[in-house]
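Re: manganese (II) ion structure - here you go.
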Amino acid sequence: MLLRLHSSVTAAELDAVRALAGELGYRAQPVAERSDLWVLECSDALPNGRLHAPGHPARFLDLSAVAEVLDRGAVRERWQRTPARAQTVVEVAGVRIGGPSVVIIAGPCAVEDRERLLEVARGVRDAGVPLLRGGAYKPRTSPYSFQGLGERGLELLAEARAETGLGIVTEVLDPRDIEKVGRVADMYQVGARSMANYALLSELGRTRKPVLLKRGFAATVEELLGAAEYVLAGGNEAVVLCERGVRSFDRVTRNLLDVGAIAHLAGATHLPILADPSHAAGRADLVPSLARAGLAAGAHGLMVEVHTAPAEAHSDGRQAIDLATLRRIVQDARALAQLDGRILASLGATPDAPHSSAAPLNGRAATRPRVS
Ligand code: PEP
Ligand code: MN
């Protein structure tokens, strides 16, 4: 790792650089020809290819002497894909995301009432989809819009799981709700609006329950990965990314599904990535096409919004597909999965063994979520 120091650096600032280097197990020495360039080498304390923990560039950048970290060298962030860590598989209620199967999560935008939720849940189960989504806590643009049913919504999700056997994915908005939501959720959803809520991400890093992290609508891929790093740095390795469309100048669709980002992420990180065609399209008629595009770009699965009476939906009704369309998307996903040697995950049955062209597992056991 190379540090470029400000030319005005003082002796005291240099001492601070040396002290931090020593603390982190580096030996700091100046590059001979240029007094403003320092080389930091691994000390003997980290022999034979052992890597320093991530986060060191940021710690050096916090020092007033340091203008730039020029080369990350042996320092890696936890989200990075490496030969030794090619693909993480996150297990959610027995369903493995990131492995050889394609996983669909489907359900209403929000939990609205008991009958509607159970009706949609039964339809999702009957379509062969293993995971049910639905927000009990809704982040809305206006404080006067429907905010979700809160605790009552969580109770209804628990009832839907008990009746159908579906795993539950639901959003947590507030760090204070993590425990309460976690009693029902098999996977926490962090919405686009919360992607940069670092207090929430850090707290989720202390749990061992899977986190579905949605990309902010104006967030770069680097910012999404930085957000994931907050969860990973806390020790929670069960992170799944979700591309849900970014804001664009065109209003034909609600957002622009960034399939380039999906293709990039599938190679850049070992974390699984899902596509959310519903929030990208903002219109039900385009959801099947964008679902296919997301899978073709390399997504490990989909999250889609389904409703049995979209016109009556409390939120996101325009983009809600009906159950017949969900069944069509399931068929499409099955066909696309087969094309590249994967299969579609179904309720209670996902394969364990890596399939022919699926990315190799990372040599560790799949991340086992622990219900806290
Ligand atoms: C949702 O999944 O219903 C949602 C609010 O999505 P996003 O955070 O991507 O807007
Ligand atoms: Mn929604």
